[in-house]
């Protein structure tokens, strides 16, 4: 398993999220986002001016392969973060919008077989709607039934910028101050601890009462990592550190939310430090 330097990694993460924050116009409500599939269908239908009759058909479960329907499903995928025109389908996020049948032992295999039969992703705007739609249908017809309740939606890059910038303002930390701290200094800095807690609270991946929401944290930061390994490591580390006496809610959040996830945070993968053997 590859590990990153916590001090450098956290500093770069926070710097990345803060750059340009003063000019940011995005509003991330609270900033936890919980949305149902149907809510996103309604929103996308309004944005795309889908006629009522076609919207009613889609909401009733009839998925005809016309261009409006294809692009509406792509819009839903973008809103729910399970589709990206550059990286394609994020399967584990789309799966969250379905309820599986415990008696169906082959739903995952059927879905995977369906996905493998689809063409490769191309950077072609004219084909993205079709591939997003076909990818969705693999789940729709094979994986389970669409959920009616709301699902956690990861924040996008700009929303994360907004959250981090606001938390830095609240706790009076500047980018220059943050980047001047060594790992040891960060471990001892109460403002950094409270900054981490603030980001966790605002994004919905942490609470003082419940601790780390591993499921949400994986949805927000786990892209590219094996879900099983991510969560196994998280449970082991959190179980080990949860009962320790940290002396403050901020310090507890800092250790549980960041020290336990220094090796898997996708946001800093571009800044991965080489191993000691040079790999």
Task: Describe the protein's architecture and organization.
The chain has 279 residues and is mainly alpha-helical. It has two domains: 34-152, Recoverin, domain 1; 157-258, Pheromone/general odorant binding protein domain (Recoverin, domain 1, Orthogonal Bundle). It has 14 helices and eight strands. The protein has helices at residues 6-18, 37-47, 52-59, 67-79, 91-95, 107-116, 125-142, 157-170, 175-179, 183-187, 190-203, 214-221, 227-241, 249-258; strands spanning 34-35, 83-84, 88-89, 98-99, 145-146, 151-152, 206-207, 211-212. The strands form four sheets. A two-stranded antiparallel ribbon has the order 1-6. α4 (67-79) packs across α7 and α8 (157-170) packs across α11. The model is unreliable at 1-9, 16-29 and 266-279 (pLDDT under 50). GO terms for molecular function: odorant binding. Its main location: secreted. Residues 1-28 form the signal peptide. Belongs to the PBP/GOBP family. Keywords: Disulfide bond, Secreted, Signal.
């Amino acid at each position: 398993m590859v590990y990153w330097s916590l001090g450098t990694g956290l500093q770069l993460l926070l710097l990345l999220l803060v750059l340009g924050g003063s000019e940011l116009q995005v509003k991330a409500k609270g900033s936890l986002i919980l949305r149902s599939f149907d809510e996103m269908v309604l929103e996308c239908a309004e944005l795309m001016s889908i006629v009522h009759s076609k919207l009613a058909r889609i909401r009733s479960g009839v998925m005809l392969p016309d261009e409006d329907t294809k692009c509406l499903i792509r819009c839903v995928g973008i809103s729910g973060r399970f589709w990206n025109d550059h990286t394609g389908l994020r399967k584990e996020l789309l799966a969250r919008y379905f309820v599986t049948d415990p008696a169906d032992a082959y739903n995952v295999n059927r879905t995977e077989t369906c996905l493998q039969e689809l063409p490769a992703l191309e950077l072609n705007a004219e084909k993205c709607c079709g591939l997003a739609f076909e990818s969705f249908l693999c789940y729709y017809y094979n994986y389970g039934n669409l959920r009616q309740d709301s699902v956690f939606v990861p924040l996008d890059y700009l929303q994360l910028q907004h959250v981090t910038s606001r938390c830095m303002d609240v706790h009076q930390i500047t980018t220059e101050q943050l980047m001047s701290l060594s790992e040891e200094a960060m471990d001892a800095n109460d403002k950094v601890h409270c900054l981490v807690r603030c980001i966790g609270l605002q994004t919905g991946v942490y609470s003082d009462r419940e601790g780390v929401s591993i499921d949400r944290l994986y949805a927000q930061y786990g892209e590219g990592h094996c879900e099983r390994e991510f969560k196994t490591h998280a449970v082991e580390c959190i179980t080990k550190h949860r009962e320790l006496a940290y002396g403050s809610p901020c310090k507890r959040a800092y250790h549980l939310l960041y020290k336990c996830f220094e090796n898997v945070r996708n946001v800093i993968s571009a800044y991965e430090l080489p191993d000691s053997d040079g790999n």
